[in-house]
Amino acid sequence: MARDESTRQSADDRSGRDPQVAEAPRVVVRRSARRKRTVTAYRDADTIVVLIPQRMTKADERVYVEDMVAKVLARESRSAAPRGDTALADRARELSERYLEPQLGYAPEPSSVNWVTNQNHRWGSCTPSAATIRLSDRMLPMPSWVVDYVLLHELAHLVEAGHTRRFWRLVNVYPDADKAQGYLEGFQAAATLGRGSETPALNGASQ
């Protein structure tokens, strides 16, 4: 199958603004000789891949790519992760009250919940002694149900520092636990194959 691939740089990338905040992903356009009319797009880690027919003109490509990227971002925004530390802390409180309070009789409350930019080898971390939770900003483009799972995972570390049986009982009440774990494992596998580098994981609490 003949395929031509090109990469587009968004206006936000060129302006030097933070692409995580501006939601300006890397865009890859792939041309296929087998594709006659249809145009599709999907998210692959930090990239939006747009599939177009081999013979599409450059003018049509620009129009379709812009439209398909907008559709992917719009779809993601409807189920996006909380933006900003305040929204993230509010979501952590909601998850604690919904999933942990019925099991414990109280809702564990962190002293702070923050997005961080320097956490490249784990999705989330918790320091029980300080009751602080940090999530990697690499999760910002991910679906909200994945971020919710990681938040609940770290909230459970406020109760159980290690990955004990009790810890997993607290976490596994989350209905999308298996689905979220599979998503993160798939993301890690794709990143490892694509870049050959170490990728984040869910680790135990730090002391």
From TrEMBL:
Organism name: Microlunatus elymi
Domain YgjP-like metallopeptidase: start-end pairs: 116-184
Basic and acidic residues: compositionally biased ranges: 1-17
Superkingdom field: Bacteria
InterPro entries documented for this protein: UTP_pyrophosphatase-like (IPR053136), YgjP-like_metallopeptidase (IPR002725)
Protein name: M48 family metallopeptidase
Pfam families: YgjP-like
Lineage: Bacteria, Bacillati, Actinomycetota, Actinomycetes, Propionibacteriales
Region of interest: Disordered: 1-27
